[in-house]
Amino acid sequence: IDDIKTQFSECLESGFVTNNGKYVKKFELDLKEYLSSKIKPLVFCNGEMALYNLIQAWKEELGFDHNKSFKVLVPSFTFSGTVNAIVKNNLEPVFCDIDDTMTINLQKIDNVKNAKMIIAVGAYGTLPNIEQLIDFSKKYNLVLILDNAPSFGIKYKNKFPCNYNISEIWSFHATKVLSSMEGGGALSNNEKIMKRIEYLRNFGQKELVRGNIESLGLNSKMQEISAIVGIYNLSRFKETLLLRRIIIDKYKNIFNEMIEDNRIDVMRVSKNTLCNFTFYPIILKEDADNFVKYMKYKNIEVRRYYTAVHELDFYRNKYTQLNLDFTNNIKDKIVALPLHSGMSDNKIEFLFDSVKSYFN
Ligand SMILES: *Cc1c(COP(=O)(O)O)cnc(C)c1O
Fold this sequence. Notes:
This protein has 11 helices and 12 strands. It is of the alpha/beta class and 360 residues long. The chain has a 7-stranded mixed β-sheet with strand order 1-8-7-6-5-2-4, with helices on both faces. Helix 5 links the parallel strand 5 and strand 6.
């Protein structure tokens, strides 16, 4: 609070609390610098709306009216928000499988008919195979978008996804590693796309006196207060990631022992990337119901996250699905354990002891 209270009161006293104010602009410049990207990212009220706007911008760029549609390849194993952003754009998801990295399995995609876009997901703060994704999208002429909501600041072969010319979004939600409380960001190397999302996030207004619009934008602006918190957290983000790595290594040690004892499986992280483990997923050998109950009894909040979106009530049997064997096999066995860079050794011990005592 001490570190941001000057900006906080200045902001409230000035009355300039929103509408692309100075802190939002600064947050965008700081993000640009952090990523050493050529183009300045834009920030949004949340990650889902950043994705919604980015999809809409690409749809318009491809020449599709808002009431027209095409197919979008997307892993079923993600957060519902990924797919909601597709469907709200009047586009049609095609549910794809993942592999043991918990990211989209391109080898299993055998039908791209009428698909114009692929949206890969950086689940749990990891990254999919960026090079394969680029090859695949070129081969089939697909727009490539990365829902990188949990993975801001993660590199693939020492480069951020934006340095590979990918269109991506991040979430700065309170549960993510870089937080602005609520918030999101988007970056594309295509300047036309950046122009489009800039006016789309402001109702689609291309000029601000009469407020004329050419397309249906939904207000998705970030507030100044969020930007102030985002700027502050970004300024100590490298430190946060370092603290987090120490805790991640402790988790890895413990859970690797449990793999050897044949109790659980874990996500495979490709050697080309680091993962920030927004959560730490473990895959049980059976349905996770009892495990979740036991953790609740121990007062440890776990989530059944991510999930198979094609099985959520709204999505069930509504859209095309490819072979989803891997997703279907893990969807009821996977549990996300909490992990935070500020966790005390006591808390970490308590978590490990509780998981161990479940198996004993
Ligand atoms: C967190 C998350 C979102 C949603 O981000 P919000 O900022 O909460 O809207 C979307 N997609 C994925 C993969 C996420 O992990």
